[in-house]
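Support request from a user on the community tier.

User writes: "When I paste my structure tokens into the form, the page sometimes reloads and wipes my input. The last time it worked, I copied everything first. Here is what I submitted, just in case something in the input itself triggers the reload:"
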């Protein structure tokens, strides 16, 4: 790459960062002066039961820190704990590679909120890779509705493999276990509610976090990367039953070098930053039970592998149920738009409790 192109690429990166920082600063400055800002009805009018706490399950995004997208209303004074686990199946069959595995994404969170506006989170997150226990169910579902198997029925079930091919000849260049992708880390997060909102204006928050990698995927040479991100969120009540939530985040990654791959295999190049976005539509069947539809966008994480270098688009359908034993949530995960860099199917469950 020429010096001119490098400079242009660097300028573009900092321009994006500058614009995002300017937007956050503008919101922080202008929002307190917005008419109605000081006429907050209550500290929970716009919140409802909130969103389902899910991060990207896509192959490329799962290799690194995926910034939790926090919204207003994620704050309850005092101590709390959250536990969630997501089980997803990945099938990506391209001329250059084949991904066939499943992943378990587990997060344990301890929270402390000083009041209804400011809280801290400590996350331990772990991604574990294993054989495809969902393969039979997914193939049966595709057969039932006449959906093309895309080669699923040409290989054995319950595999956990990553295969790389010569796209011109189809010859396999390497095969590794998906266990090589396992990674985990600890993240410290902050959430601050700028305003609880009014009947007209939504509630708004800012959030940020830093993650220390305890274990990086084995394809990386840096085993303890430090990544950071920040963002803004909104929550709006439209009626007694309907709520919407939205969040936008930006993540800065510590640069990663990958190990030398097998002969003929294209080495993976990571992006140094990513934009993520979330939109949620929530219908409250009762004050303690809501049904949700969520759309999660995750910007490209890899630069140079066709299909995996695209943004991820995931949809979630599920519910939240508030009981005296805590908040429970469940969701189904499906891919849309991008087939290679998205989970084929997934299940999510979570539980949270405030002391």
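"...and here is what came back when it finally went through:"
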């Amino acid at each position: 790459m020429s010096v001119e192109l490098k400079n242009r690429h660097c300028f573009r990166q900092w321009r994006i960062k500058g614009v995002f920082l300017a937007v956050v600063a503008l919101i922080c400055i202008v929002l307190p002066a917005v008419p109605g800002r000081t006429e907050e009805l209550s500290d929970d009018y716009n919140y409802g039961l909130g969103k389902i706490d899910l991060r990207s399950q896509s192959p490329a995004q799962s290799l690194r820190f995926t910034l939790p997208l926090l919204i207003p209303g994620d704050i309850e004074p005092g101590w709390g704990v959250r536990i969630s686990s997501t089980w997803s199946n990945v099938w990506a069959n391209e001329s250059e590679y084949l991904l066939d595995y499943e992943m378990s994404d587990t997060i344990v969170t301890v929270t402390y909120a000083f009041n209804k506006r400011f809280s801290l989170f400590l996350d331990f997150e772990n991604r574990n890779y294993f054989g495809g226990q969902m393969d039979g169910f997914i193939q049966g579902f595709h057969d039932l509705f006449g959906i093309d198997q895309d080669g699923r029925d040409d290989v054995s079930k319950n595999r956990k493999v990553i295969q790389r091919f010569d796209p011109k000849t189809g010859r396999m260049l390497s095969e590794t276990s998906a266990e090589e992708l396992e990674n985990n880390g600890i993240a410290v997060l902050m959430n601050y509610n700028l305003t609880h909102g009014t009947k007209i204006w939504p509630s708004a928050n800012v959030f940020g976090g830093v993650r220390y990698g305890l274990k990086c995927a084995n394809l990386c040479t840096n085993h303890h990367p430090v990544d950071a991100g920040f963002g803004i969120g909104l929550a709006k009540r439209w009626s007694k039953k309907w709520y919407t939530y939205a969040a936008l985040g930006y993540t800065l990654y510590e640069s990663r070098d990958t190990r030398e791959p097998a002969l003929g295999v294209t080495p993976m190049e990571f992006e140094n930053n990513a934009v993520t976005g979330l939109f949620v539509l929530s219908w409250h069947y009762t004050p303690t039970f809501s049904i949700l539809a969520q759309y999660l966008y995750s910007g490209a994480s890899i630069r140079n592998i066709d299909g995996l270098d695209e943004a991820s688009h995931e949809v979630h359908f599920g519910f939240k149920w508030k009981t005296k034993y805590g908040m429970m949530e469940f969701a189904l995960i499906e891919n849309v738009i991008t087939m290679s860099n998205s989970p084929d199917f997934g299940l999510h469950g979570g539980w949270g409790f405030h002391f």
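Agent notes: The reload is a front-end session timeout and is unrelated to the input. The CA atoms of residues 98 and 163 lie 5 Å apart. The first strand starts at residue 78 and ends at 93. Escalated to web team.
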